[in-house]
TrEMBL record:
Residues 41-497 form the Aldehyde dehydrogenase domain. The active site is at residue 268. It is found in: Cytoplasm, Cytosol. GO terms for molecular function: 4-trimethylammoniobutyraldehyde dehydrogenase activity; aldehyde dehydrogenase (NAD+) activity. Pathway: Amine and polyamine biosynthesis; carnitine biosynthesis. This is Aldh9a1a protein. GO terms for cellular component: cytosol. Keywords: Cytoplasm, NAD, Oxidoreductase. The keyword Nuclease does not apply. PROSITE patterns: ALDEHYDE_DEHYDR_CYS (PS00070), ALDEHYDE_DEHYDR_GLU (PS00687). The keyword Nucleotidyltransferase does not apply.
Amino acid sequence: MAQQPLLSLPEFQNVSMATLVVKEPLNFWGGQRVKPKHEKNAEAVYEPATGRVLCDMIPCVEEEVDQAIKSAHSAYLQWRKLSGMERSRIMLEAARIIRERRDEIAKVEVINNGKSITEAEVDIDIAWQCIEYYAGIAPTLSGQHIQLPGGSFAYTRREPLGVCVGIGAWNYPFQIASWKSAPAMACGNAMVFKPSPMTPVTAVILAEIYKEAGVPDGLFNVVQGGAETGSLLCHHPMVAKVSFTGSVPTGKKVMEMAAKSVKQVTLELGGKSPLIIFKDCELENAIKGALVANFLTQGEVCCNGTRVFVQREIMPQFLEGVVKRTKAIAVGNPMLRDTRMGALISKPHMEKVLGFISQAKEQGAKVLCGGERFVPSDPKLKEGYFVSPCVLDNCRDDMTCVKEEIFGPVMSVLPFDTEEEVLERANNTTFGLASGVFTRDIARAHRVAENLQAGTCYINNYNVGPVEVPFGGYKMSGFGRENGQVTIEYYSQLKTVVVEMGDVDEFF
Ligand SMILES: NC(=O)C1=CN([C@@H]2O[C@H](COP(=O)(O)OP(=O)(O)OC[C@H]3O[C@@H](n4cnc5c(N)ncnc54)[C@H](O)[C@@H]3O)[C@@H](O)[C@H]2O)C=CC1
Ligand SMILES: C[N+](C)(C)CCCC(=O)O
């Protein structure tokens, strides 16, 4: 079927790098795009691969946040009454439209985020798969019947929470909006979503697609803004839940704000995940796995395995293979199909990542490859925020590059001798988002998985994230889960109904 242009988005037709300028309003509530009330506090949004201004992000003020939440609430009152089958049908239609327009959405994501087109397409695929998955679950939501003495009984109803807020990070803009809205909507909730101020463009496309698929006006809304708008959302009395993806310091603030009115919270925070490579592994797979664990989306992935522990006996072979493959990564124009690594999100972030690399060198790490600003030959891309992927050797556990989340293309390699030692070192962190192990010994693999303190453990691969599988953190990487069946628990509440079939006992 021929691709239709996105609803009311003439500027997104035939998009290409270095040309798109977004002028349309990026807020969406009451079933339509809404112009910002005033242009105060507008912030420039950049195209990371060129450093060019793509659009302005104009933060929503209190009155606008209030309008969006009220519009969500009125849609919620209708949506919650639908059966799971009815909700499912609409969500399946949304998934179908995304699938049909995937190439176009992926291009806009590349322009706004800087990641390669190949990765952006996968992200959009994961987004529609997530909506399809929760559309499949919606009709299965049900309660329980419990028989009580004397013919009396109780039953439980799985009910929605109400208006849920989603607050997103900039690394997976469209995917995060889908991961949050799909389970929320399947359970009968409405959502107000705030994307990161650096990636404001694609959430509104999702809103238009949901509308086209048939959700009631107001069911999925987008408000733009940064910390201030986010905090208005977290404080609003009509909000029942906040699902947040971002850094640990902001996550703590979100939790504090939500606590004031006892809102439920899901926190998907950062990480510094260990990847443990034993000498009995299949080495080529471990090398490929280490690259996937570190260099997707320019290393800006929360669950990346950035502490790569390698058993001492195989260190030389591992380093040789990893450096060879890392040097071969094609960095540059993210819109080209052969490119494997695009641009970091912003100039300050690029400088921060380069700062981590200089500090690592000062602390004694050895750069085996990359770690420098990369300037592509294409003149359009000269101001882009590219960094060549970096492998650091001679790392120690006490170095900053090993302790702190860099969120850039930097792999720190650390030698180890025994399983016991590596488990202790791997767990010696306040984070606990993910972990990985490469070994051919199946008993060891499962023993290590059991003993790693992290929400996910990948055995003989890394960063594999099918939507059927729960994702979320231990320790300061957060709590609650996204994806998988369990996420229904985080977007619904259980009501118990107790039914008396006889007379009330005379107690008083
Ligand atoms: N566990 C996960 O699933 C993921 C975690 N992350 C983490 O996110 C970080 C990078 O993303 P950033 O956008 O820089 O994080 P951030 O914490 O600065 O911002 C995240 C979101 O929170 C909003 N925000 C900021 N201050 C707020 C406040 N006071 N109240 C409410 N909302 C507020 C931001 O506008 C943005 O939408 C990394 O540390 C990374 O580890 C990123 C992606 C996925
Ligand atoms: C890479 N992937 C898709 C498995 C996880 C992305 C999580 C995130 O950083 O939002």
